[in-house]
Amino acid sequence: MIMKYVTAIVFCLFLSIVSGKELTYNGDWSIESNKNSAVIGNVFDGNLETTWNSGTAQEVGDNIKINFNKEVLVYGLVLTVADQYSFPRAVEISASQDGKSWITLTSEKNYQKETPIRISAWNTLNFSFKSSIIKYLKISITESCGLPLKISGCSILGQDISDNIKTDRSVIIIPQSATPTIAFAAEELQKYLGRMGYFVMIHKTGKIDTSRYSDYVFRLGTGNAPGFGTDGYTIQNTGKDILVSGNSDMSVLYGTYTLLERLGVRWFCPYEEGESIPDSFLPRVLDKIDIAETPSFLARGFVEPYFWDTQKIMWCVRNKINSMGTNVGWNYLFLANPGIEKIGGKDYYYANAGWVWPNSHSFNYFIPTSKYFKDFPEYFPLIDGKRVGGDWQQVCTSNPEVIKIFKEKIFEYLSKNPSLKVVSVMPNDGALKWCECEKCRKLDGPDPKEISHCNQMCRLVTDRYLVLAREIAEEVKQKYPNVKIQIFAYSVFKAPPVYIKEMPDNVIMQICQYGEPAQIIGTVDENKYMLEWMQGWANIKGPSLSVYDYFLLREEHPELHTPLFFTEALFHKLKLYRNNLNVKYYQTQFAWSTQNENPLLFYSYVKALWNVEIDKNKFYNDFFSKYYGKASVPMGKYFRMMMERVKEKNILYVNNYNCPPPKDLYDAEIIPVIDKLFADANKLADKEFIVKQRIRRDWYAYQYAKKYLNLNQKDKSLVSSKNNKGLIIKQYLFYVADSLNSSMEGTW
Ligand SMILES: [Zn+2]
């Protein structure tokens, strides 16, 4: 058995300082490969420019073997492959105590649904396994491939065995009848304590003598906590008992993550490479723990069309995001996954306005043109004297038959989906022209406002839309008192209504922020009106307020270069929403594709959604010191400097798809300063390999901006495509991949 508990414990008050949470190679390991063994050291030298190449096509059984020549604690591995082609198709990682008998730690096959080998644009592959104490590690190929294997770096997550390793000094106790979620909370606590070299067992309540545990007895379970809602929790200690409790299973899981954060664990971005694990567990930290928390927003959500996987879901859960969605049916996959029982069960996500179709644009879902237009053209809008159909047309909202069908369809839908707690009544996307029949126009009032929208003058139709929604909501309230009707402030119904002053209290009004400047709301001319409009919506008596943002939408991702500017604006606006406008639900549309390239902004999001009163300075210090380690000072300086430049140059970022890196940000004066900060950071990172990788990602974002802006005269290819929406980020990623193949310029 590989997992071995260290029994000889030496008390050590002055813990040895272990750098980072990865093993450092100082020439003290014996490393070999069955192919091209002479240069295998290139993989472990902490230098991403030196690569080991297997030389021939990958064959089953090819391997890299490491003898640490001592016992080490390991729990994960991050491989950096040299290009986007020469990666292993299937890998087994095994361990041994004697170099003869091997035990599999993990086995992963690419494209497998649940445990894929994940290759980001950065060509990193993350593997994780149970914390184990071993002497030998082997990385083996288990599927052949016509291409050779090229690896430029390998980071082994873990630490040297030291006095920090502790075992059996604490225990985790959960109820006999623990639900899958509570059991999972215990497993997560066990797993991350194990990564700190602190091994504990999990017991279901029964006969257990707790006096044998010298440190703590962790007790996880639900209780009755008035005022803590569904997600709030308490963490308290009495003697050596540490109790994590809340009203729901998820509150206990959230409380467990908070406990781990108190111990120093962070989930900055998905996958092992985004975690920060302290070197050891210092029990006394918990002697006076007394935490009681409830979230700032009931729903805290991300909506991303495409790039979800299990690790990203887990990153959300660990950071207490409870509303996750997509528009390509991911939620069905997600909700059907048996693993969902471990993270609260599907009802939890339904109740938290999870993105369940037909959430969002639903007119066509309830009143499909294909079904009704032929026989009932009067259900559809009268435009220029003619009834007009089509999937994205609106409906004639004043037609009593239309209202009747809406209600029937919603009731039918709710009876088929009893877990559903939120239903959207939202116009179709795109169609700006609404019905011009006399009855509809009358609802807008005698003097309707018009606004310029998408380069045409449009009649504002908020009042007539709300008349429809009000009628539906009133009847839903009678029949389904626990169901909310979600409506939207968007497009030609974004301005608050003129006449309607009150709506039923089962209505959630979601204000969409498409096309707004990213600047703090109300601080620039371009978004002053939005503050007034939001206030107008907030003044309507009855409903709850929600915000649907597009804060991370920009495909060109200028926030890669100036994350602090966006983070500052974000902290400010979330506080304003919560404290001044009483917003209860928040979701933002964004792009996972660059999350691991830009963790600060995403991480700020999850923290501020939980607590808008976040202590900014403490937060930044924590992030920079843990994420950039020894390189935190120059990297902090770089990002602060870029933020100041956005302010100085009055750069306006807009929340929509097209927002290229601004030229004003970079000039001949600033470039050598940035170059120097990166060089300093790289030097300071020394052998902290994962930190080096993180800095390199930031450096590439900067290189990309320079190329994009044609500051580097050598490469004009990127500039020519700047009007191709959607291509930009792909080009950025390809640029990175290409650069990895060729020799690198500048700092690297
Ligand atoms: Zn009409």
For the sheet with most strands, the description reads: 7 strands, antiparallel
Number of helices: 18
Structural class estimated from helices and strands: alpha/beta
**Low-confidence runs of at least 5 consecutive residues:** 1-20, 111-116, 712-730, 737-748
Tally of extended strands?
26
Mean pLDDT over the residues: 83
Shape: globular
Percent strand: 15-25%
Helicity range of the residues?
Answer: 25-40%
> Over the alpha carbons, how many angstroms does the gyration radius reach?
28 Å
Oligomer: single chain
Bound molecules: zinc ion
Measured distance between first and last alpha carbons: 42 Å
Q: What features would you describe in this structure?
A:
The protein is an alpha/beta fold. Among the domains are: 30-160, Sandwich (Jelly Rolls), CATH 2.60.120; 166-293, Chitobiase, domain 2, CATH 3.30.379; 527-748, no CATH class. The chain contains 18 helices and 26 strands. Strands 1, 2, 3, 4, 5, 6 and 7 form a seven-stranded antiparallel beta sheet that branches. It has a seven-stranded parallel beta sheet with strand order 17-16-26-25-24-23-20. It has a six-stranded mixed beta sheet with strand order 9-8-10-12-11-15. Mean pLDDT is 83; it is low at 1-20, 111-116, 712-730 and 737-748. Residues 382, 396, 398, 435, 437, 439-440 line the site of zinc ion (ZN).
